[in-house]
Amino acid sequence: MIVGCPKEIKPQEFRVGLTPAAAHELVAHGHRVLIEAGAGMGAGFADAAYEAAGAEIVATAEEVFARGEMIVKVKEPQAVERSRLRAGQVLFTYLHLAPDPDQTRDLLASGVTAIAYETVTDAAGGLPLLAPMSEVAGRLAPQVGAWTLQKANGGRGVLLGGVPGVLPARVVVIGGGVVGTHAARVAAGMGADVTVLDRSLPRLRYLDDVFGRDFRTAYASGATTAELVAEADMVIGAVLVPGAAAPKLVTRAQLGTMKPGAAIVDVAIDQGGCFETSRATTHKDPIYEVDGIMHYCVANMPGAVARTSTQALGNATLPFALALADHGWRKACAANPHLLAGLNTHAGRLTYAAVGAALGIDSLPAAEALKL
After folding, report:
1. Is 270 a residue of the active site?
2. Is residue 134 a contact partner of residue 179, using CB atoms and an 8 Å limit?
């Protein structure tokens, strides 16, 4: 198979879909790998490293898309990239279709077979291709939130860990999954007073057992969430419904109960955000203010640490990319129901029910798409 990897063109996106190590593995399996010139530079991977791995450097993205039978990326294809996709081609990347009707329509019109990292599952019910970036984003969230809290950036001017004689900042993390756990660990490590909210009692018991000395837990009822949000210096949104739009858990009216200059970090912004006032921002212009509350809603937070993120993502995606290249998408998905769960579009049909529900589009079960 010819596997193509273009340079990411979303603003301030420095990650790359394939590392030189991944390219070497694909070549060792007998596949051809096309890398757009300069695609890996943002993550610190020179073209020469790809050539040493056996990949071919091509001058333009157009050539990558035209020749590639499978396109491997990081972020969802932008409009110009979607215009280059075609039926019979496999796209393997993050998609986040539920809050993005334009992308969904374009993918359906192209006929491409699109497999989304964020909906591939594992035997434990986890999301193995989302987890690495959730870990990165979770660990980044307190760091960028602390920066947002600085007075020069419009924040309250509160030091996350405080100092002797001065109380630390109060941090509320909504969601106790991968993102929330890593965010809470780092915030607590920075000295903050941290509470994690979740609706799963088993998850809360786990967090209490493992991290009980580091941070507190609370059941995420509406009343408790409202009370803790009002007291917080920083609120981190870390809620995920796989493949679907994120639920809005903090309303604009609730902003009026918060401390002026408090910071919101919405890690769920890729799926539409879990705060009513969230809108996607970029690393170039990451924060904005609504009703006196500072919002950090960068849609590709892991892109800020591109080398770490690229390596972590590549470790997770490579086995699936090899399966798709070695066997073709039909055989690979038929043999692995967890990979099949990643199928979002094929031959002009939507194949992920949660996206269909979010956008009002009829969907076809992924297993049925194998027969098309």
Report:
1. yes
2. yes
